[in-house]
Design goal:
mainly alpha; 18 helices; 0% strand; globular
């Protein structure tokens, strides 16, 4: 059973405005990565983590807007082209099970940095891909190594920030992911319209190279690896799955991933099919989903104090339902920005509440726990994208959002009841 968490107590503006606060560590937590004395590079770690997370999420969402362009270039349907999203999600989910325990054993910052550098390879292959099959391979490589970035960053926050401040700290990390979503969905379309789809992957490779290299330098010079975990990968993961509260949270997260991400992947293509929007316009309008998430990151602390975690979950589900239904049946493009922003705000209200609770699933093996959380989220996404692709090809893409909106509302109400206990 998930315990009810108390709202964040009043604290200074200095606390809420900083992106992350690595000095807030539990001295009894064996997983905490503590800076060595005199290490000036530690001041840059939160920002470098943000840059790596930005690149990771931008890479994940880059193909959403590119689906029609990829379908046209390789002479396939949009549903078939969506394999580049599906395989990324599968690889991202499966490889969590490797990087989570590695982060617990060898240090989360080091694992994040090496994964970011490995993503240079995947995006380089994507840039050079001569066929859709090669692009699919490239996306598998990118998804596999991107798996070691954002979840490990959340685990690092869990090691470094007390629980009553963690929702706000994670909201700052969410800001980086939201900006990555904006860049992935909008800039990829803008670049594709003017220079084709390939330069998007070259730009991502360069970003991963810079951010990963700098973070690796900071990790070597600052944080000591957390090498206290002695149990093997399997016992850690099985131990987490043995907890009823963890199984419930992971099941809810998988359903959330299937519904929300399955719909998000087809937002740009619906705009292009139904509203004749260009690639750049579709990407720009869909990016308002990220704007809603950014708004959430700014007001998360105030909302949590006022309505608590159950209220955040309910607010998230209601916003998602209204936003997706408005998006699917909007009479014109003028309605789309508000619908996308409302859905994005709702998603982050619900999802950040789930992932904050996930940081407490197994404090002694937090890297493995967050890896498992991300694994089920993105395996859910892969199933959702497959189902949504079938609906888009055989029925109507608007029907995707008509199903997903009420489904997420029902899920959020069930989660709110559980958080209230």
């Amino acid at each position: 059973m998930v315990r009810r968490r108390h709202a964040v107590p009043a604290h200074s503006p200095d606390t809420t405005e900083r992106f992350l606060e690595p000095q807030r560590q539990d001295p009894t937590d064996p997983q905490a990565e503590r800076p060595r004395a005199g290490s000036g590079s530690q001041a840059a770690v939160p920002w470098l983590l943000g840059a790596c997370c930005f690149a990771s999420i931008a890479s994940m969402r880059a193909c959403d807007t590119l689906l029609p362009a990829l379908a046209a270039e390789f002479s396939v349907t949009v549903g078939r082209a969506s394999r580049v999203i599906f395989v990324f999600a599968v690889a991202y989910g499966v490889f969590q099970l490797c990087f989570g325990p590695l982060g617990d054993r060898y240090g989360k910052l080091r694992v994040i940095a090496l994964c970011a550098l490995a993503c240079v390879i995947g995006n380089g292959i994507a840039f050079l891909s001569p066929s859709l099959d090669w692009l699919v391979v490239a996306r598998i490589v990118s998804g596999a190594f991107a798996a070691g970035i954002y979840p490990m960053a959340m685990a690092w926050v869990g090691d470094s920030v007390a629980y009553d401040q963690r929702q706000v700290a994670l909201a700052r990390l969410v800001s980086a992911s939201v900006l990555g979503t904006l860049a992935g969905q909008w800039l990829s379309g803008l670049i594709a319209e003017w220079a084709g789809w390939r330069p998007t992957f070259a730009l991502l490779a360069g970003l991963f190279l810079v951010a990963g290299g700098l973070l690796l330098h900071a990790a070597r010079g600052g944080a000591s690896p957390a090498g206290t975990v002695r149990q093997g990968r399997r016992p850690a993961l099985l131990g987490i799955l043995a907890l009823p509260s963890a199984r419930w949270l992971l099941a809810v997260t998988a359903i959330e991933g299937a519904l929300a991400f399955g719909a998000i992947a087809f937002m740009p293509s619906l705009l292009q099919r139904h509203h004749a929007a260009s690639l750049s316009m579709a990407g720009g309008l869909t990016a308002f989903y990220g704007v809603g998430g950014f708004v959430y990151s700014r007001v998360a602390g105030r909302l949590l104090r006022r309505i608590g975690e159950p209220g955040l979950a309910r607010l998230g589900g209601a916003s998602l339902c209204l936003g997706f239904l408005a998006f699917a049946y909007a009479p014109g493009l003028a309605w789309i920005p508000a619908a996308c922003a409302l859905a994005g705000f709702g998603f982050y209200c619900l999802h950040n509440t789930l992932q904050t609770n996930a940081t407490q699933m197994a404090p002694s093996a937090r890297g493995a726990a967050m890896a498992l959380f991300a694994c089920v989220l993105f395996l859910g996404q892969s199933a959702g994208v497959l189902a949504a692709a079938w609906v888009a090809d055989h029925l109507s893409d608007a029907l995707i959002f008509a199903i997903v909106g009420p489904g997420l509302l029902a899920l959020s109400l069930a989660a709110a009841r559980r958080f209230r206990r």
